[in-house]
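Subject: complex prediction, re-run

Hi both,

The earlier run crashed halfway through, so I resubmitted it with identical inputs.
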Amino acid sequence: MQTAIRYSRLFGYFVAFAFSRSFEFRFDFYIRIVMDVVFYAVNFTFFRILFLHTPNLGGWNEPQLMIFVSAYCINDAINMTLFSNNMWQLPLLVNRGDLDYYLVRPVSSLFFVSLRDFAANSFVNLLITFGLFGWAVHRYPEPLSIGKIALFFALLLNGNLIFYCLNVIFNLAVFFTHSSDGFGPLVWSMGKFGERPDQIYTGWLRRVITFILPFCLISSFPTRMLVDPFNWRILVHALGVSIGLFCFLLFLWNRSLRAYSSASS
Amino acid sequence: MKLVQNYRWVPHVLSIELKKAFSYRVAFWVQFLLGTGTDLSVAYFLWRAIFENQHATTMQGFTFHGILYYYLFASFAGKITRGADRGYLAQDIYDGSLTRYLLYPLSFLGFKFATHLTQQLLGVFQLLIALAFLAIAIGGNHAVSPASFAAGCFTCLLTGYLHFNIMSCLEMVAFWQDVVWNLVVMLRFSMSFLGGALIPLAFFPAWGQHLVSLTPFPILVAFPARVFLGEVTLHEWVINVALLGFWSVVFTFLAREVWLRGTRQYSGVGI
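This time it finished cleanly. Structure:
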């Protein structure tokens, strides 16, 4: 319990520092908000255009798809707020040997590396994405129960944990390849699998992107929980995969730290 | 003759940049193969779902195979046009290393354009590999002719020049602001969507197509993609290249102005 309080307080300091720093760089603060709004607009418009040519996609109609798009916008905003800055810096920390300073601190190095740089500007975007979700739910033709919405958000957070794990795992390659960004950019490329409804994928690729590289569990599964009839398999599947992936991440993080040789990396 | 002498350094820059690109071979190939594989797979499954849903053999003039080839070329036309896509100038301004370029007897923007050109050549090389893979994987009668491939590559070199100047304008905002990567990412989003890489422009409603045609983005992505596919007549090509020339003049002038004002502002010690 005491450890949890200690970590919460530490995270609170990260957030406070982030807000004071953000107002030092006001141009960046506002432009990053605009950047993400452009991203959301592009995604919503993309599907609106597709629906001019088809009545449904992957078994979902347009209102259901709009909930799906708002789900991955929320996921993107959470990731941009909590993890993205830190993940972009990870390869630099490893290659320059700056990771030393994180390893000698009396807290979990993975916690520190993952959460130190909170993006206050993206936090504003997170609020915008909740607005988008509200809009998508408002125009949804059927009533959605509070229980289903609660499950949706629980699975959305779970999806975010999955994306975080994948993001770190891809970046950990830098410990071994010493390239400038590990395989970090790949997680963004492959993340496109998760930006489309999971039911369009079939065969072995579907198995890969729902079990091994589970990009489809990030936004599609929470949406299915909300708009489709309740299916406990989705819940078990999503939770099982995220627990397994997080354990794998901890194992890989420890292995990577053993391969780390400070500034000579 | 003097012009050739002035640009003797270009092959050296190309050679050094190629060495840099291949210095992390595993990362280079893995990122290329998985990145391209993902783009094509997502397009394949998305459009297969739509075509099956509509029981259609063609949509907006595209067959299913045709649309996959369009995505391949739109994706690579964008990639070749963009070149390295980041870090052209901003980093040199931030850390003060621009100073050394100001002392060298060569044009800074010219030097950066040569590095951009290397990334474009790498894009062409990767396109050849992807094309061979797609031809084996899905077949179809959309194999490009050597003439349209050469015309597509040449068009991409021209679009690359325009993109370099647009990027330069954005990156040189670093003379005044601390963070500019957001602007670059916004350009990428806009180029991908309004250029027709995310969804072919033929699927846009008529008013949307008209609005998009007023921007330089379709010339940067959809136009070279259609040249690769051999869908552009000589007359249409000339008109589009003239339009490309117009935008290039506008942004070259703008980049030059920003450069002149920025270097006046530049303190030489970084930010």
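Residues 58 and 232 of chain B are 19 Å apart (CA to CA).

- K.
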